Amino acid sequence: MLNIMSTLSTMLRITFIAGFAVVFLAMAATEELYSDKNDNITVLELLQNEPTRKQYYECFLGTGPCVTADAEFFKEHLPEAVLMGCRKCTEKQKMDFDTMTVWYIENKPDEWQTLIRKLTQDAQNIKIEKSHLLNEGDDRGCPRGIDPR
Fold it and tell me: Looking at domain 43-135, does it have CATH number 3.40.250.10?
């Protein structure tokens, strides 16, 4: 009888640990994607229209205004997308990013290098800001209101 109780106890612990692991992995895997509200845009058409492409490019670099809501949306999310390998992108956004990458490399490689440097710098700033927010608070590096004990 004692052996059966020990076996049941062990099975319950294993089931609990396995269940916890499944829930944790599911939560980690369901990272929220960027909004798909601009997925109807045809990126290749934008890239082939020189005045429009230049307007977006200057918006992304911060050297010109973002005159459309979608340009503002992309400017906000491009650095993080570059930093995280487009992990939060929809499938359409991943295809569009690939299209943009290939187009710039083939047609405007110098502009592409400038844009990537800017996006990488912005991405690093995002990373630093997030790190700073997490480490803000006390001299132990704990966020305000969080006690590590």
Answer: no
Q: Residue 67: its pLDDT value, please?
A: 93
What do you get for the CA distance between the two ends of the chain, in Å? 40
CA distance 79 to 75: 8
- In angstroms, the CA 118 to CA 110 distance is 13
Residue with tokens 């995280």: 84
Going from N- to C-terminal start, the domains of the chain cover 1-30, 43-135
Say whether pTM exceeds 0.85.
no
Beta bridge partners of 137: 143
pLDDT in tens, 101-114: 999 999 999 999 99
Asked whether the beta carbons of 126 and 83 are under 8 A apart, the reply is yes
* 137: phi then psi, degrees, rounded to nearest 5: 140, -85
Tokens of 107: 């047609």
